[in-house]
Design goal:
Length: about 200
């Protein structure tokens, strides 16, 4: 499936997904896990843009639509480091939703960007996410189950996505996921974990 096309996505997080998890693992048997570190950059006002550092690049994804309990994301920007002052001022800060400070250097390496731009700004939070995930194709959908360490906190996630809304819903139903779990993206879940977003569901 072409990863450059816009996909309708359903993702959920938890410690255990019961039969849904067993079904996902069974279908993905024989697929080797992929491991990587992503570094998400968050701010309290940003609710729309998923901003992260992955494989030496700054990536900005925008939530462009919600439909039938699914979300559609678009990769608006991808640039390998070093990145320029103009990108930081005109692309990064407008997406993160806060005013840009005085940017001194013309270009920034990954470490310079993290230390000088992100860590020195009290309104920005950098979160390390280690992912060990299995990805495969089923019913014309990209399927994923992953174990995450979000700043060291363990949580699992599964994800079903496709260009076709009906294919996603059919796969969710087959996996016994449909109706049992809420659709939550990485941006929202990480903000909940680090306390930037209040919890809205309570088990009390």
């Amino acid at each position: 499936m072409d990863r450059n096309k816009l996909l309708f996505e359903f993702r959920s997080f938890g410690q255990d997904f019961g039969n849904a998890e067993k079904n996902l693992i069974k279908l993905g048997s024989g697929v080797e896990p992929k491991e990587n570190y992503d570094y998400y950059i968050l701010s309290e006002p940003n609710q729309t843009f998923n901003i992260l550092i992955r494989k030496k690049s700054l990536i900005i994804k925008e939530l462009i639509a919600k439909t039938e309990k699914l979300e559609k994301w678009n990769v608006n920007f991808r640039q390998e480091f070093p990145i320029s002052k103009e990108i930081i001022e005109n692309i990064f800060f407008p997406a993160i939703g806060i005013e840009a400070p005085q940017i001194e250097n013309k270009k920034y390496s990954i470490i310079e960007f993290i230390e000088k731009i992100v860590n020195e700004d009290p309104d920005l939070k950098l979160v390390e996410v280690f992912k060990s995930k299995i990805e495969y194709i089923h019913n014309n959908c990209n399927c994923e189950i992953a174990e995450n360490l979000i700043n060291g906190a363990f949580i699992k996630t599964f994800n079903i996505e496709s260009e076709n809304v009906d294919d996603v819903h059919a796969t969710l139903k087959e996996m016994e996921i449909d109706g049992n779990y809420s659709n939550t993206n990485y941006l929202l879940k990480i903000k909940q974990i680090i306390g930037l977003e209040p919890l809205k569901e309570f088990k009390i």
